[in-house]
Design brief:
five-stranded parallel beta sheet, globular
Length: 515
């Protein structure tokens, strides 16, 4: 809201994009209330508005008479024109598909964008880790909030009845999530039979706007004890009195959806309960099991970031361009993919530049990572991995060593190896090494073709003379290969030899370029 106010103060228009009409209505009420004392015109575009009202809003928007527009996907229609758009706020970013994002790209070419989400999609999270997007995490929950008690279990009528009656006894209400519109009324009848004491209502996305709104209002006013609903309540429903949630066939749902749904309860100072149920005769797939375990494991407040991290590990990072928002860039790996992308864009723009370095692939069979016992916080881990990838000389390497000891204490061998590999890779990239592979008692270093324009045979021998490892040089399919003999050598000796060789050759290259 502050960002929106600042933009309006600078005579710019603001658009707030949300995934559902219910959430649009809620934001509209909040913005209206907050800016009541100021000369700020707030309007909303959604299916809750009549055709005439929508046309009037669009006219005002075009003339610059609307400062803040809140809307659903309707905002992305071609007939929506802004006088001077300055800020776009996207709420629940994970709910927008690729087509919507392509439309957004057109809209936001010269516009500042603020994206809000409790559980970023893998691609967005990965982009933020790599520095392509800035990321801020709000971790402080509102006061007097408790984590939601989460249970994963086979569907069980007795558990449902007991939990509903317990919630009713303390004057609370219950969500029952059933995601099949065609048989939702049948489910209501079954629940009515199971719990005759309860008053039950239901909502889904195919209802008329008036009926949907009225049912939700009746539920808020306490006329229903149970609301049977589809995932339409995933965003924008804030009912503090509802503190028990049942999700039927939870194994069919994605991790961020489960997390968002669980967020519908526990919005007051009472302890809330979430029951994630699956069919008794169902054998869960490995991915479903991982999802349910993740949601069960991360119950503390502000776990959305960790949930998204787990989702990233389960589903992969996706492609920066194109329609895949999750999945693995298997064929080339992310770094090479980014490099190829950069080169292709430069070529397209006619600014094709000389390659400064390669991208060496290292297969060393050495354990090198940041263990949980050393750094437990996921974000700190990401930050350090990123910093290791950015090492490009000894000064940076030693600086990071000192910082790690200062922040986390003395590090184990696996971290020392990781740092050395980071430095070795920086030097090997500079001299256009294509691949380093450990094969039995040998370490094979293969160079790219371009290296033959930089180095003479004696340059390789000069660099090898600085190491204590025995080696020979050969040519394989037109590419230079240096093969180290690593029989009876320990991991640290192998890394030291590789590092010394890479650094010496990089110095030779630098010396040649300076003359």
């Amino acid at each position: 809201m502050r960002a929106a106010f600042k933009a309006v103060n600078d005579h710019k228009q603001v658009v707030v994009l949300v995934p559902t009409t219910v959430l649009a209505q809620q934001h509209y009420s909040n913005f209206k209330e907050r800016f009541e004392q100021f000369a700020v015109n707030v309007d909303v575009l959604s299916r809750f508005r009549s055709k005439k009202e929508q046309t009037e809003t669009l006219e005002k928007l075009k003339k610059g008479q609307v400062d803040i527009l809140i809307g659903t996907h309707r905002v992305l229609s071609k007939d929506v024109e802004f006088a001077d758009l300055g800020l776009m706020i996207i709420d629940e970013e994970q709910r927008f598909g690729v087509k919507h994002k392509e439309a957004l790209k057109e809209l936001k070419k010269k516009v500042d964008v603020l994206t809000l989400t409790a559980t970023p999609i893998p691609r967005t999270l990965h982009m933020s880790m790599l520095g392509i997007r800035d990321l801020s995490v709000i971790e402080t929950p509102p006061t007097n909030r408790y984590p939601v008690q989460t249970y994963v279990l086979e569907q069980n009528d007795r558990v449902i009845r007991d939990a509903v009656l317990r919630e009713m006894d303390r004057g609370g209400q219950v969500y029952y999530l059933y995601n099949k519109v065609d048989t939702i009324e049948k489910k209501v009848s079954e629940l009515q039979e199971l719990i005759p004491e309860a008053s039950i209502g239901f909502v889904h996305g195919q209802m008329s706007e008036i009926r949907l709104e009225n049912t939700l209002l009746d539920f808020i006013e306490g006329q229903y004890d149970i609301l049977v609903t589809t995932t339409i309540i995933e965003t924008g429903v804030d009912i503090p009195n509802a503190n028990t949630l049942f999700i039927e066939n939870a194994d069919h749902m994605g991790l961020s959806t489960l997390y968002q749904l669980r967020g519908r309860v526990g919005r007051s100072n009472r302890i809330a309960y979430a029951y994630l149920m699956y069919r008794p005769d169902k054998t869960l797939t490995e991915v479903s099991e991982k999802r349910l375990e993740a949601i069960k494991g991360f119950t503390e407040l502000g776990s959305g970031f960790k949930i998204a991290m787990r989702d990233l590990s389960i589903r992969g990072a996706g492609n920066l361009l194109g329609s895949s928002q999750s999945g693995f860039i298997d064929s080339v790996g992310f770094e090479l993919y980014s490099q190829l992308l950069e080169e292709a864009i430069a070529k397209k723009n006619g600014t094709d530049k000389k390659r400064e370095k390669g991208n060496a692939e290292l297969i060393l069979q050495i354990d090198a990572y940041l263990p949980d016992e050393y750094i437990s916080d996921e974000r700190h881990k990401i930050e350090i991995y990123k910093r290791i990838r950015q090492i490009d000389n000894r000064f940076n390497y030693e600086g990071l060593q000192d910082e790690l000891i200062d922040r986390f204490g003395e590090y184990p061998d696996v971290v020392a190896y990781l740092l050395e590999i980071g430095l070795a890779k920086a030097y090997l990239d500079k001299v256009f090494v294509n691949r380093v592979e450990r094969r039995n008692n040998k370490l094979v270093i293969q160079f790219e073709k371009i290296s033959q324009q930089l180095f003479l045979t004696q340059d390789y021998f000069q660099a090898l003379s600085q190491t204590s490892l025995k080696a020979n040089i050969s040519e394989n399919q037109g590419l230079i290969e240096v093969v180290f003999d690593i029989r009876n050598k320990k991991d640290y000796e192998i890394l030291e030899g590789l590092l010394t060789f890479g650094e010496s050759l990089a110095n030779i290259k630098e010396s040649k370029e300076s003359h």
